Amino acid sequence: MAAVTLERLTKRYDRAPRAALDELSLAVADGEFLVLLGPSGCGKTTALRCVAGLEEPTAGTIRIGAREVTRLAPGARDVAMVFQNYALYPHLAVRHNLSFALEMRRVPRPEITRRVADVAARLGLTELLDRRPGELSGGQRQRVALGRAMVRNPAVFLLDEPLSNLDAQLRGELRAELLALHRSLGATMLYVTHDQVEAMTMGERIAVLHEGRLRQVGAPRDVYERPADTFVARFIGSPGMNIFDAARADGGRGVLIGGSLTVETDVTVDGAFQVGVRPEHVALRARGRGAGQGEGQVRIVEPLGAETLVHLDVGTTRLVARMRGLRAPAVGDRVGVRIDAGDLHVFDGRGVRRA
Amino acid sequence: MADRLLRWMGRVLVGLLGLSMVAPFLYMLSTSLMDEFEVLRFPPALWPGHPRPGNYQAALTALPFARFFLNSLVFAGSVAVAQVATSATAAYALARLRFPGRERVFFTVLTVMMVPTIVLLIPRFLLVNALGWVDSYAGLISTEVVSVWGIFLLRQFFQTLPRDLEDAARLDGAGEWTVFRRIILPLTRPALATLFVFAFVDQWKNFLWPLIVTRSLDMQVMELGIASFHGVYYTNWPYQMAAAVAGVLPLLLLFLVAQRAFVRGIQLSGLR
């Protein structure tokens, strides 16, 4: 077990217009489950591969525990990785997939047999030890990939979108299993995903990356409730936060959204600014009840079962509201829209959080 | 109705094509059993009046064919093994290892593919002669151990293998050589088998190089033995065909055993 410290880690590929990874500094605590989250091409996998030693960083340092490993060979770093497509050795039986790393490290035979049996029992793979990866289901392959990492008892686990090739139900199950595993192993885990549901449910902390830069690190709740900028606000949440170009309301305290919706608030920002509101904080009322601060017309209704997403045109802008249950206005209805000042997120002209 | 007609026409066409390929082989077989003069009769006889299996014994004992057969086996077998070894290592380096000028090296290798073998015949002989290897196995084998086609074939194959496998092995603590030997090579077995079979067949049929580089009867190969029935003024056709049938048999056998490797080789490379 060990902490992982990245200092100003930078990776530039030849001929690429911008750095794949731009001065990423990040400290992962010993035993922590940290999720690297971002859209594809944000640099999260590059960061992981740098820690693994599969990519050589252009600049910056990587420390595992007290040891600097920046230029060390992958096999010498005491890290194990689970690949997105599992990368199981297709010509070897599960047993030998699991034992390969131990053989490479010249662990004595009896010890190998014991550890393989141990991990197999733990992951429910005992029956499958003599099968080849091609004869396994997706979920089983995923377990073997995990087992291959576990059997080495590494200081750090690196997981690169390990659940993305599974169907939704299996993904849900394995999410829980992975968390239980993390708890029982107490190992440091760096987990890369583009799926913010995985990030929210699994991460003790989430590091959000965009275009090679770290945008925010924090507990899932912090990242959700106080996004550091408009990118994080939009990316986290399903759907993400509604963000609008806003203007000061005429002759008073408050902001004007879409030219028609006024929210009273004390917040003042100089120059151009943006405001955001989570879909669940947009309240819709039947028209004529007088409670709305503005009015909108329903454009699309998405019933999801436990909740319904309602897309609205409000003045010159659009927003999404989340309502509980399946009762919702019909397409084309005009409804009153209400947003509490306390639910408003304010960002400056460059998209950085102000309040 | 039109469908069935089309299918039948297709079958007839394939049948005719097949017949045109098999016919020379069958005629060789038939000739090998004929009387010396029956071959030259006009109109030609398609089948011997009195089949003479004795032609085989006579032909194969007229010259030391057992020795020729052994020589061919050693020559083709060694070259095939050597080509697999050199192609696999070179192709892996060209497909996967990072070193400056890699693409240029590969391009150069490809360029060599464009040079006709015949152009290299004399330089090769001079080299072998200078080394004192004329009329020896070393002379026969040494200039054939590298196959540009083999390098190309395997490089294409290596590039289809997922890189993650190598990365996983590196993380597991394997060095480059171990990655190659324990992960890459076992996964490349079909392509290696294909290369082996093609290389073996190529060298078994090789006539020109053995003709140039061997002198004594002891070093000659099957192809040369078969050809020696062909004189300037006189050719014993039945004997030559009998020897040819004997020479083709190992290839037929190899083809039956390794049919899948042949087909895969054609699919893999798009060449041939």
Overview of the molecule:
The complex is a heterodimer of chains A (355) and B (272). In chain A, helix 3 packs across helix 4 (138-150). The longest helix of chain A has 18 residues, at 168-185. Chain A has helices at 44-52, 94-104, 109-123, 138-150, 168-185, 196-202, 220-225, 230-235, and strands spanning 4-11, 21-28, 33-37, 59-64, 67-68, 79-82, 156-160, 188-193, 205-210, 213-218, 242-248, 255-257, 261-263, 273-277, 282-286, 294-303, 307-314, 317-324, 334-339, 345-348. Chain A has a six-stranded mixed β-sheet, sandwiched between helices. A five-stranded antiparallel β-sheet of chain A has the order 13-12-11-14-20. Chain A is an alpha+beta fold and 355 residues long. Chain A folds into two domains: 4-235, Rossmann fold, CATH 3.40.50.300; 242-348, Nucleic acid-binding proteins (OB fold (Dihydrolipoamide Acetyltransferase, E2P)), CATH 2.40.50. In chain B, helix 2 crosses helix 13 (237-257), helix 8 crosses helix 9 (176-187) and helix 10 (189-204) packs across helix 14 (259-269). Chain B has one domain: MetI-like (MetI-like fold, Orthogonal Bundle). Chain B contains 14 helices and no strands. Chain B is 72% helix and 0% strand. With 272 residues, chain B is mostly helical. Chains A and B meet through strand 6 and helix 2 of A and helix 8 and helix 9 of B.
Which CATH first-tier class of chain B would you pick? Mainly Alpha
Q: What's the total count of β strands of chain B? A: 0
Most residues in contact: chain pair: A-B, 24 and 17 residues
Rg value of chain B: 23 Å
**Percent of residues of chain B in beta strands?**
under 5%
Query: Can you identify the CATH class of the largest domain in chain A?
Result: Alpha Beta
- Oligomer category: heterodimer
Question: What is the CATH architecture annotation of the largest domain in chain A?
Answer: 3-Layer(aba) Sandwich
Residue stretches of chain B low in confidence (pLDDT < 50, at least 5 long) are none
Relative helix content of chain B: over 70%
Q: Would you report the number of β strands of chain A? A: 20
What's the number of structural domains of chain A? Answer: 2
CATH topology of the largest domain in chain A: Rossmann fold
